[in-house]
Design goal:
The protein is mostly helical. It is built from eleven helices and two strands. The two termini are 35 Å apart. This is Histidine kinase.
Length: 205
């Protein structure tokens, strides 16, 4: 019965019926609470199911005002979720809870940073890296700098192009580190999420 309702809730979300998601989550949550009073049920299993319901409820509520970000996060949830990986729920709940902060950080990544005084000791601007790349190629330019300087990006598209080149030239692990060190806010962006999923799929082959 719970399996049926969970699939129904997921289908509602995919079809953008967010109010129906909230309605069914409320019904299923109340049903599970009632079942917890029974000594015949496995309480841990029910508590885990409640986490899943909470995730969909929070995603649907978020989608009412920030649909694109909520759907991107839903896709990320589908990628990370496995049969017994309840940490995926905890991670998504935490990310949604910090959404305002994450959204602010994402805006900082997406927007071009203009008129900023960057200390040259902090690293090399991506536009300067591009000049070096033109002279000696991406692989050689990156290897020259990877242990001595960090690359400073001023907009999202440059960063995404750079990470794609890392994968193209065989630096997949480094590309993954860039994703993981950039913070969870990147996964609210569909372009980054899709490329992250592509890397994960390639690793399975």
């Amino acid at each position: 019965m719970v399996y049926y309702w969970k699939n129904k809730i997921k289908e509602h979300f995919i079809k953008r019926r967010y109010l129906e998601v909230l309605k069914d989550c409320s019904y299923l949550y109340a049903k599970i609470i009632a079942e917890l009073d029974s000594k015949m049920v496995k309480q841990q299993s029910k508590l885990n199911e409640m986490k899943t319901i909470k995730v969909f409820s929070m995603l649907a509520d978020m989608a009412l005002e920030h649909e694109e970000e909520a759907r991107a996060l839903f896709e990320y949830y589908q990628v990370t979720k496995t049969k017994n990986n309840w940490q995926a729920e905890e991670s998504i709940i935490e990310m949604i809870g910090n959404f305002d902060k994450n959204l602010c950080e994402l805006s900082m990544v997406i927007q071009s940073i203009q008129d900023i005084d960057i200390d040259k000791n902090d690293g090399i601007l991506y536009k300067d890296f591009k000049e070096l790349e033109k002279d000696i190629g991406f692989k050689e330019a990156f290897e020259d700098l990877m242990f001595s300087s960090k690359i400073i990006f001023t907009n999202k598209n440059d960063f995404l192009y750079f990470v794609k080149n890392l994968v193209k030239f065989g630096y997949e692990d480094i590309a993954m580190n860039y994703f993981e060190n950039s913070g969870s806010f990147l996964f609210f962006d569909r372009d980054f999420l899709n490329f992250y999923k592509e890397i994960l799929q390639n690793r399975k082959h």
